[in-house]
Model the fold of this input.
Amino acid sequence: MFASFMAGTWIAGSAVAVVAGVVGYFVVLRGETFAAHALPQGAFAGAAGAAVLGLSPVLGAGAFSLLGAVVIALLGRRGRHDVAAALALVLLLASGALFLGLSTSYAPEVFSLLFGQLLGVGLGDTPAIVAVSLACVLLAGALFRPLLAWSALGDASVVRGRRSAAVEAAFLVLLTLATTAAVPVVGAFLMFSLVSAPAAAVRLLARSPLVGVAGSVAVALGIVWASVALGYLTSWPIGFFVGAGGALSYGVARLVARVRS
Amino acid sequence: MTVLAGLVAPGFLSSGPVRVALALGGIVSLVSAPVGVLTVVRRQSFAGHALGDIGATGGAGAFLLGVSALWGFLASSAIAVGAFHVAGSRERRSRDIATGIVLGAALGVSALFLYLDANSTSTTGATMTVLFGSLFVVPPGTVPLVAGLGAVALVAVLVCFRPLLLAAVHPDVAAARGVRVRRVELGYLVALAVAVALSAMTIGAVLSTALLVGPSGAALRVTRRPGSAVALAAALGVVATFAGVLLAYDSYAWPPAQHGWPASFFVVVLLFVADLAAGLLAGRGRRRSARRRAG
Done:
């Protein structure tokens, strides 16, 4: 389990968990589920496109989730059209499937980009993932207070007008960075679980922001480490453990919250 | 005619798989039109998206059991629809998060099932078939079953169509007129479960929303009248699926050699373009009428 070929997975997985915990806190506080759901699917298309061109999946995921963030920001300004947004999401998934269909590596690549794969992260991609994660955590730390106000108070926030637009842009940048780092590791479909479940679970039990962020990072790390270990032992896909772990932690937190009250 | 002959590759209409694909696409488009119009009016496009994601679990499980994927899609979307019905009226923010986490768990289970599929049958096609659809490998025996299910869903949704529409647009008026909202809603949910399962069969579980709300969304931008919206949505759906099948058939001759492009990709692209075009059309009409009023 701790052999040298697993080093990349452990390091990248831990970095991704930290980022998911931090960004997830704001996602849950703001209730911004749409972007957190949509960007990973864009990243899937990008990573798939990069696979066709023989580039690093991290690069493709980054380019496409940035594109997705810009589109979401534009849509947000004009009022979201429900159907157009759903169709755009589906179009991204379909293009990802097409790219992979056209490349020589077929089904295994689809599987690992959607559901994550234990050995999907080569040591070559690990430095990029760690760097992106570090940038994400630093940005979140620098903008902690404005982000907190914007997330907690919603559109009625004191940071109105241009300031609010700037904070929203910063939030989308954070989500883009997190998605770029996470999709090659946990897969496009399970990224949302890893981002929202730990933060939602902790929020049910603790209201203080610092405890919230630290708690969701801890839960996310627990989920990722357990998933990597169990994935190694059973050789089942890592996405299964991430999805199940997320649901389990959220379910337990709800139960505890109910017993307490 | 020569253009048409150039588009339709030789042997298109006499090919068995193509006929099955066209029959399936036609039935699904007809069922999805009224269900989709209701879904868009009720602003539940994302519930449709969620149903598709959960449908993937059922489809992958059906592969594992060796039964038709259609049963899996149907079972999982029926369960999910029931759950949505029960959880219906909660606060939006917490409901969205909880839904997302349940979806994540369902997708995780799909990952496991698909992995086990690949291991037990030593084919890797299940992932593509369940998630993104493979219209050309649907067994011909499925068509009568699809037609029967489609007919049931169509009857259910058409019986409840007017009261449901009223309940969606003016809940108070509907209640005052004595519409039993919960009961007619059940008809809609049954039809929704069937429509999602059939769309999943046609273009794959994770893409199924496109066929459900794409044609109806485009139609509702152009016309406000429910009857014409349903008719237009059905027509758009049929055109998109047929054209998708045709292009996929043609694409076997395109680069890279020996790789057909997936039909579901073409269907999704065509529906996306139709929605954009309908938006432009509607925008221009609105501007023109505004100018007329101003002048």
Remarks:
- Chain B touches chain A through 58 residues (CB under 8 Å).
- Residues 3 and 277 of chain B are 24 Å apart (CA to CA).
- The radius of gyration of chain B is 20 Å.
- Residues 263-294 of chain B form the longest helix (32 residues).
